[in-house]
Design brief:
about 240 residues, alpha/beta, 6-stranded mixed sheet, globular, ATPase-coupled transmembrane transporter activity, lyase activity, ATP-binding
Length: about 240
Amino acid sequence: MAELLSMKELEKTFIMHYLHGEHVVGCKNISFDLNEGEFIGITGKSGAGKSTILKTIYRTYLPTGGKLIFHSDQYGSIDLVTATEREMIALRKKEIGYVSQFLNVMPRVTALEVVMDAILEMGVSAYEAEEKAKNMLAHFRLPESLWDSFPKTFSGGEKLRLNLAQAMVKKPKLLLLDEPTASLDEASKRSVKEMIEQLKQSGTSMIGIFHDLEFMESVVDSHYHLENGVLNKKMVV
């Protein structure tokens, strides 16, 4: 199985300027490898640094140490720690997706347009983008009556389902999932699981952080637990 991402001693330290420059460690000495089509789940207490790991990979946070070697279609082997902003924008458009618990979209863009825009970035036609967007919104059980509505009016669960649709419709090489089942009912969780299984079969690799251990263990291949800054591998039953 080919390696997609190799993380070596990743570190992120925050400088708290309002506390006279005090340094706060978000994560430190984080190392693991992710193969193509593999799903790694990360658990740990709130504040342990789980989201920080995902955000440093996506480069929402700029890492302060270590290496993140990503095997890209566009750039070959590239270190995400030192990649330029231009390179990261290109990778986010076509190769790396991120599902947050929070939806951040333009104010007057409809739900259908949110998902369509994600596909149009891949260079497909408007007709194909619309068809794929509608199929993905239907898969995540977002009512058709909401497709032409503005997401700011949606409930928390509806916003999360739209986030999932927006990220998963692109079938990226690497998908980062931050609590992908938070605020979802059981039917919606089944939709997420089905899409995760489809993405894995098509070769997408994933890293997710979870509090829902039962759901996590039903989809991941490897489980790491973060505690006191140390990442330990657990057995997956």
